Amino acid sequence: MSDLRNARACTTALRDDTVPDVKAMVLAAGLGTRLRPLTYELPKPMVPVVDRPVMAHIVDLLKSQGITDVIANLHYFPDTIRDYFGDEITYRYEPELLGTAGGVRNCRDFFGDEPFLVISGDALTDLDVGALRATHDRLGGVATLTVKQVPDTREFGVVITDENDRILGFQEKPAPEEAKSDLGNCGIYLFSPEIFDYYPEADPVDWAFDIFPTLLANDIPFHIHRANDEYWNDVGSLAELKAGTFDALTGELALPAIEGAGPEAVIVGEGSSIDAAEDVKGPVFIGSDVTIGEGVRLTGPVVIGDRAVIGEGAMIRDSIVLPGTVVEPGSIVIGATLGRAGIIAAMTPRHSPTPAS
Fold first, then answer.
1. Among 187, 222, 238, which residue terminates a domain?
2. CATH at residue 315
């Protein structure tokens, strides 16, 4: 795994990370029902992955590639997202949900006359946006959909293409024996402004049910971008959240924010200490201002969020302890995602509000 990570790091260092003239939209209005009970308290894009919300990793990835004009549509817990990011990004609130494509049309004035990126707010990825833009420019068409080969088509919407990567159709979570493709739709798109010519008049509007079928019915060319050498996980369920978190910790996913990740890494945040612990075996990530009691044993992969308290003699293995969580002394925690109310309040803030004058 370390060889794979080193190869990715080298590739990242060699590529030109500046993507010219691309603005981006993060789809952040969804409810995230498959992540309940976490999403009873916070919107899906704000679910923590290692040291920050998944949406913060998206914004950091875009920034690292020179994309700083970012807008997000909001609906569910909108103030949670605004308070965290402040004026780092632009917002467009939807009193009623407009659909995955309707929310994008509502931001049409933001994009201007150049191709623009749309990315799901739960996409955990190290995608090279410049390569996506190059594919879009090379193939033409009004849309380019990022896809990745998937091991089990039953978990994904798949995209059917011809030999020139033009999209011919879709299947929604087909059984493997019925699948006409193994290319999963990543929910990361690059659109030319002409895409808005193919919208119906009224909202809500959905990519899968409205826009893409209209393109196919009218023989309008649109294509795929293959991201088979890059990481993608939609963090859409508790199992995927856990997998994505541990992939970031071990370095399988290269995130700009996670320094020192690796299969045996032990990363300790500011204001935290493992001096009192009896045994710590990586990979382990401990956030900021975490209290680790005497005799604690941590057997990785383990991620402990900001301001968590791990009581004396507790033993934790293969688990995520969310920010602000108290693990009682003597607890044994195995294969769990453990949390309590107040997750966002316990996270190290990204945006500090300006004090009132």
1. 238
2. 2.160.10.10
**pLDDT tens-digit series, residues 63-89:** 999 999 999 999 988 999 998 999 999
Could you tell me if 270 and 285 are in contact, meaning their C-beta atoms sit under 8 angstroms apart?
A: no
The sign of the CA dihedral 27, 84, 36, 303 is positive
Same domain, 67 and 196: yes
Domain that holds residue 320: 264-346
Of 226, 231, 216, nearest to 165 by C-alpha is: 226
| Contacts (Cβ under 8 Å, ≥6 apart) of 100 | 27, 205, 206, 207, 208
Confidence of residue 353 (pLDDT cuts 50, 70, 90): very low
In a domain, 88, yes or no: yes
Q: Has residue 6 got a pLDDT over 50? A: no
Give the torsion sign (CA, 56, 128, 152, 215).
positive
Residue 271: left if φ>0, alpha if ψ -120 to 50, beta else—which one?
left
Instruction: Determine, yes or no, domain membership for 31.
Output: yes
| Same domain for 273 and 204 | no
- Determine, yes or no, domain membership for 253: no
Q: What residue spans of 192-340 are helical by DSSP H?
A: 212-217, 238-250
Q: Is residue 156's pLDDT more than 70?
A: yes
Helix axes of 78-85 and 54-64: crossing angle, nearest 10 degrees: 40
Range list of H helices, 251-324: none
Q: Give me the percent of the chain exceeding a pLDDT of 90.
A: 59
Strand stretches in 282-339, DSSP E: 284-286, 291-292, 297-304, 309-310, 315-321, 326-327, 332-334, 337-338
Report the number of distinct structural domains present in the chain.
2
Identify the sign of the CA torsion 245, 248, 252, 255.
positive
User: pLDDT tens digits, residue range 304-341?
Assistant: 999 999 999 999 999 999 999 999 999 999 999 988 88
Q: Write down the pLDDT at residue 20.
A: 58
Tell me the pTM. 0.86
Same domain, 133 and 44: yes
| R_g over Cα of the chain | 21
What pLDDT is attached to residue 145? 95
**Shared-domain flag, residues 36 and 152:** yes
